[in-house]
Design goal:
Blueprint (H helix, E strand, L loop, with lengths): L1 H18 L9 E4 L6 H12 L3 E6 L8 E7 L2 E7 L5 E5 L13 E4 L2 E3 L6 E3 L4 E3 L3 H4 L14 E4 L2 E5 L8 H5 L2 H5 L8 E10 L2 H8 L5 H4 L13 E5 L2 E5 L27 H4 L3 E4 L3 E6 L5 E9 L6 E9 L5 H33 L6 E4 L4 H14 L6 H4 L1
Antiparallel strand pairs: 1-19, 2-11, 3-4, 3-6, 4-5, 7-8, 8-9, 10-11, 12-18, 13-14, 14-15, 15-16, 16-17, 17-18
Amino acid sequence: MSRKKLEEIAKINRQHAEDGTIELTQKIVEVPAKYYYDQDRWNSEIERVFKRLPLVLGISSELKKPGDYKALEVVGMPVIINRNSEGKLNAFLNICRHRGSSLVENGHGNSSHFRCPYHGWAYSDDGELIGISDNENFGDLDKECNGLIKLPIEERAGIIWVNLDHKTELSMDSFLSGYDEMLAHFKFEDWYIFDTRTLKGPNWKVAYDGYLDLYHLPVLHSETFGTEISNKAMFYAWGPHQRVISPSRLSSQDDFDGEGIDYSELPIKEVPTAVLMTGVWTIFPHVSIASFNGGGRSVLLSQLLPGASPEESYTVQYYLMEKEPNQQQRKEAKEQFDFLKYVVKEEDYATGLKLQKGLKTGKLESVLFGRNESGGQAFHEWVDKIINTKNKDLSKLF
C-alpha cells in the first residue's frame, strides 16, 4: 500500500508540474513572534513535546553488534541505547539507581554490562541490577526492583525512536500514523554511515522552519544550489509528519538513477521506488531526511534538538549512503557533505541567528506563513495542539 501511496503522490506532483500550480491553504497564518524566544513557551515545548513524544535518537546501523551502545544527552536527559546479547534494542536513563551517577560517558562503545564508576554497582545489558559492591554490608535490597529505568524504544524502518517518558501510554502506531511504512522504502537497516557531525544553531523552531521551506531556496541559496530547485512546494502529511517535494521533481530532467535515465515521461508505475522517494521527509518534531541521487544514492539525515536555552539548538547530521562507497564515491561524498555543512551553517543557520535576534527585539508581534507555506503552518499547529493536550489524550490526537 505504501508503494501505491508513492505513486499517487507522484501522479499529483506530475499534474501540478504540467499545470504550473501547487496546492494552497485557505489563508495566511500568524505565529506569535515571542514563541521563538520566550522562556515559558520554550519550557512548555521541552516538557510537553520533547519529553512526551518518541524522538529519533539513532539509526539501526549505529548499533549493529550485540553489546554495541550509544550514550547521549537529550534535552537534559542522559540516555543509553544498547543492543543486548540477543540483538534486541533497549533504552535506559544513564543513571545509577544508587546515587544517580552516569554509568558511561557520551559516545559509542561495546559492553556486555554497565558498571557505575562511583561505587561499582553493575547492570546487565537488559538494565537489570546484577551486582552491588560489598553487598553484605550495604544491606538487604531487592535487585529486581532497582534496575535501570527503562525507556520505551522502537526500531522501525532502520530508525530508532525513544520516548523520554518511561511511563508514557502513547501508542507508537498512533504517533507514526503509517509514516514508518513510507520510510521503510529507504531500507536504512543496511545503509552505510559515511560520517556524522554536530552543528550549533538558533532556536529549534527557527532552524526547523527551514527544513520545511522550499520558498527560500532561490534567494538564500542563490550562490550554492537554490537556482536548481523550484521554490514551489507540495506537502503530504501522515499525522504530524510531512514529506516536502517540488512538483517538478519527478517531471523534469534532474532525476536520474546514476545511469543517465530520464524518468519524466515514464509511466509512474515503472518508476523505481528509489526515485519516487526523492524530496525531504520530516519526522515530527525534529528530523529531516533529504535524499540525493547521482554518484551513489545518499541522504542527509538531520537530527535537530533544542540546546540549553531558547536561543540555542544543535543538529547532528548523518551522511548515509545506500552502499559502502568505493574510493571515488568516498571522495565525492566528502565533497558533498562538506558542501552541505557550508549551506546549513553559513547560509541557513547564520540567517536563522540574525532572524532570531530581530525577533527578540519584541518589535514584531507575529511572523507570517503564507498560503504556499502549508508545511510550516501545519508544524506550528501541531506544536500548539500537543502542548495543549493531556497525557491521557495524546494517542487520540494523531
